Amino acid sequence: MTFRIGHGYDVHRLCEGRRLILCGVGIPFDMGLLGHSDADAAVHALMDAVLGALAMGDIGKLFPDSDPQYKDCDSMKLLDKVIELMRKRGFSLGNLDITIVAEHPKLSPYIGQMRENLAGAFGCDISRISVKATTEEGLGLAGKGIAAHASVIIEG
Ligand code: MG
Q: How many A from CA of 73 to the centre of ligand 1?
């Protein structure tokens, strides 16, 4: 069996008048993330990690933000396409680990649903899916944005 590792990172700016969506979960908050798609930074980092493991570039190459079909689109749908590419190359998910960096809001109540959404997308047991949240103690993005790191191992 071959194992391949991938890493992804993404950040989006917080702004008013947008929904906050992370790992496909709509989170009640007075701001959302600015972006061409639904700006789900966690799913974007995850897709880049899977594409990185496949050495197939990144989501900017696959889903260019100059393309109107991706305007406000559901990033979970884009993740389905990335998973399909992974399967076509003969790989399946080993496990994944995401860290979301956000000063606000508190994300712990939503972590379970985030993990379920991702397990559903990959069609795998939830024990292979880890989502964590942390702050930067007010020292980094400091509430101006939300960032996410993702690591994956794929096997095939
Ligand atoms: Mg992004």
A: 12
